[in-house]
Write a structure and sequence with these properties.
By secondary structure, the protein is α+β, with helices and mostly antiparallel strands. It has one domain: Ribosomal Protein L22, Chain A (Alpha-Beta Complex), CATH 3.90.470.10. About 40% of the residues lie in helices and about 30% in strands.
Length: about 130
C-alpha cells in the first residue's frame, strides 16, 4: 500500500471512531423493498423508529429493527452510558445493492426465463442532535 493510500485509510479510521453505526450485509431482500422501510425511519428519534418498525407490515422491518438495536448498543458502548428518551436520532441510513443470484425458470417451447434474486447491504448511523452537522 502506498503512503497516500495509507494516510487516507488512517484518516477514515479516525473519523469512524466518532461515528456510531451498524452494518447489515447480504440481506436476502431486494434493495427497493428495503429502501421503502429505510425512508420511513430516516431522521426519526430512535424510540419512535423502533415503534414504527415493530408495527410495520413489511418483511424488511424485522431486520432493520434488529440493526437499529445494534446501532443503539454501539452508541451506548462507546459512550459508557445508556441512551435516554429523545436523545438519539437515526442520522443516516442507506441501502446498497448486494450480490444478485441468477437463476433460470423453465418457460414454454424450450425457453428459459431469467430470475434475479437480489440482496442488499444496509448501513445505519445514529447520533445525538447536538453532534449532527
Amino acid at each position: 500500500m502506498g503512503a497516500r493510500k495509507r494516510i487516507a485509510a488512517e484518516k477514515m479510521k479516525e473519523a469512524r471512531k466518532t461515528q456510531y453505526f451498524a452494518k447489515l450485509q447480504n440481506v436476502p431482500t431486494s434493495p427497493r423493498k428495503s429502501r421503502l422501510v429505510a425512508d420511513m425511519i430516516r431522521g426519526v428519534e430512535v424510540n419512535r423508529a423502533l415503534g414504527m418498525l415493530k408495527f410495520s407490515s413489511k418483511a424488511a422491518s424485522v431486520r432493520l429493527e434488529k440493526l437499529l438495536r445494534s446501532a443503539i448498543a454501539n452508541w451506548e458502548q462507546k459512550n459508557d452510558r445508556k441512551a435516554e428518551a429523545g436523545e438519539l436520532f437515526v442520522t443516516k441510513i442507506f441501502v446498497d445493492g448486494g450480490a444478485t443470484m441468477k437463476r433460470m425458470r423453465p418457460a414454454p417451447q424450450g425457453r428459459g426465463y431469467r430470475i434475479r434474486k437480489r440482496s442488499n447491504h444496509v448501513t445505519l448511523f445514529v447520533d445525538t442532535k447536538t453532534n449532527e452537522k
